């Protein structure tokens, strides 16, 4: 957080990003509420929920597009105008009674806004690398992660309350969202001269001509990015361990929900309250970890944090299998999420400092695309084991998975240290 107050350029840039993020977050919950008023609300809500996750599949393409940008700051300005304009169209589409034609238009436009937001995130990386000192990159990434997580947690509640205050006037609410992007544009436009001399504002990019050439270049660039990522020994180890952590976390999430339904001693008040409380505690822990000052997190190496996260996950499974303590469950959840919140910006900060600037967006997007693949896999595997065999077998399998992957990680680190 200190870098936010100490660095003027970073502060202005982040304020614009925060304003944009608030607009996007507020509309997320409102869109689901709007779907309830459709002729077939269950179908509309299901479609809205599925489409909301589709932009994640295009992350790697958004990273590629960001790296094909000659002037990242100008593109940030242009994208805010486009997002604000799209919300004006959404506002017009939400006038009158909810109908399927208007709903599909709003759904498609909202997805485009999300894709542009992803584009903005990857395009912002070279700018941040220009305006933040290398030693402050990790703290800057932690601050951004913490703020985004805070907005994600509170945005839905604030959006629902604001919509109620507007007497469920969806069109007016969309206009407020539009204003947030135009406000972010105004802030960035006001200080544009401060950023015009940055190297990220004067990038030499080889442009492909024609759709076929663009598609070929995308696949060629993506392949070379994965090759380059593979050549980074330390980062490829992070990729592997993050895949395992995500797989474990997804499996643990589904098994916890099943355990709450079958082991009443774990419940706090009731099932719904327990699920909500654990989710809230996990989010708060992640926010606290992300916002922990850099002077503290510098004393924690990435390797130590990974071991601590594995230890917390292992203790979680032991607690569910044998101790069944509600209090310990919440404590472990906080501890694991705090260390995860510290770890994520440290790894991203290392990548920003180590990777070549001309393809940093593509490579980081490739990294996150790969590590996110194990999330649905973890849920599917351990849910299947729990339903086919038993919860006890599923938790025992998860504990074994935790121990085996931790040993593999330690052996890899030992070999790497020995070779260096």
Helix content: over 70%
Structural class: mainly alpha
Oligomer: single chain
Q: Element order, helices and strands?
A: HHHHHHHHHHHHHHHHHH
Strand content: under 5%
- Uncertain spans: none
Count of alpha/pi helices:
18
Strand count, sense and closure of the main sheet?
A: none
User: What Rg, in angstroms, do the CA atoms define?
Assistant: 22 Å
Mean pLDDT over all positions: 84
In one word, what is the shape? globular
> First CA to last CA: what distance?
34 Å
Transmembrane segments: 12-35, 41-65, 77-95, 101-125, 146-166, 172-191, 268-290, 302-321, 327-345, 366-387, 393-411
Keywords: Cell membrane, Membrane, Transmembrane, Transmembrane helix
Membrane topology: Multi-pass membrane protein
Protein name: MFS transporter
Describe this structure in words.
The chain is an all-alpha fold and 420 residues long. Helix content is 82%, strand content 0%. The chain has helices spanning 2-6, 8-35, 41-53, 59-67, 72-93, 100-131, 137-165, 170-190, 192-195, 211-231, 233-262, 271-290, 294-297, 302-323, 326-354, 360-372, 374-388, 391-419. Helix 2 packs parallel to helix 7 and helix 5 runs antiparallel to helix 6 (100-131). The longest helix is centred in the first third of the chain and has 32 residues, at 100-131. The relative contact order is 0.13. The mean pLDDT is 84.
